[in-house]
């Protein structure tokens, strides 16, 4: 159990205060659905939802993408948070910095945990995927230290990539903890033998980037090795298998043999790309959830973007947001209501009668919400 979960469960009689940041585009359509599902889930705790401003659209109006008051409220008043989506431009905008990147830094949400899980009965069983990608959330190229200069041969742009032993070690520990938690859940459900041993795959490109990716690889591997040494060979992680994969071949194997991966731990950029690519294996980015986790705070966030091409049309898929809300609950220690939401979503997907256009259907956002609530018995 995380420190966050222990603290919250000790005050179980109080309503959970959840900061809600819809931000941009379809975030304003799907996050309210997640809020209503959380509120109506049988056995869920009581909630107090606090609307908070953030996003690129806010920046265009005020010059501020993430107000100080939003950060203060999250730190001082909230037990957790949900973020919708952000419309960060692909070109440089003076004074703008992505609010989701700022939130991860300000709240020290160093792990982005992204499950990519199929639903039995909806996909090819031979290419079954049940993987969690654990993405380091604070470093790599995302420190955004870039320069550009004019040279006799034209402009030259440079970006500093930061990989530290501290960040790599703690994301490694998080990955091993996630692997153990998944194995425990399988044991409870009686599926451990069918799925196999818990495993952490270290994803890197140390064959080329021997200094930065080399440090990441060595630091993560040392988590298990040092654990075994300190416990005389039978440490906490001794039953978790460990292997590694070069990032380009990782992408190839992910599409060819998704069933061989359990927990994948990667630097920031690789984890971002891998989890988005893996969404294709389950049908859509609109299905893939995540949480940004630190040692004292959890923030749910659907993996998809703001989708400006469909914003305002009422056809955005809310399932990633619903699952992210459930994932937030799970990491806060409320496993049973989270499981109810997962099962309700799986039921809707398995039935296949209420699917949004990204999944080949004609259902609206409201249709999916009603179907999930019906499956919940809410």
Comma- or semicolon-separated keywords:
single chain; 378 residues; alpha/beta; Isopropylmalate Dehydrogenase; 2 domains; ten-stranded mixed sheet; two-stranded antiparallel ribbon; 13 helices; 42% helix
Most strands sheet: 10 strands, mixed
DSSP helix count?
13
CATH class of the largest domain: Alpha Beta
Distance between the termini: 28 Å
- The CATH superfamily of the largest domain is identified as Isopropylmalate Dehydrogenase
* Global mean pLDDT: 90
**Count of all domains:** 2
GO molecular function: homoisocitrate dehydrogenase activity; isocitrate dehydrogenase (NAD+) activity; magnesium ion binding; NAD binding
InterPro entries: IsoCit/isopropylmalate_DH_CS, IsoPropMal-DH-like_dom
Family: Belongs to the isocitrate and isopropylmalate dehydrogenases family.
Protein name: Putative LYS12-homo-isocitrate dehydrogenase
Polypeptide structure, described:
The protein is α/β, with parallel strands linked by helices and 378 residues long. It has 2 domains: 1-112 and 291-378, 3-Layer(aba) Sandwich (Isopropylmalate Dehydrogenase), CATH 3.40.718.10; 124-282, Isopropylmalate Dehydrogenase, CATH 3.40.718.10. It has helices at residues 3-10, 27-40, 56-62, 68-76, 99-106, 165-189, 192-195, 212-230, 247-256, 268-278, 319-331, 335-351, 365-376; strands at 16-23, 47-51, 80-85, 111-117, 130-136, 140-151, 154-162, 199-204, 241-246, 263-266, 291-293, 298-300. A 10-stranded mixed β-sheet has the order 2-1-3-12-11-4-5-10-8-9, sandwiched between helices. Strand 6 and strand 7 form a beta hairpin. The two termini are 28 Å apart. The model has no long low-confidence stretch (mean pLDDT 90).
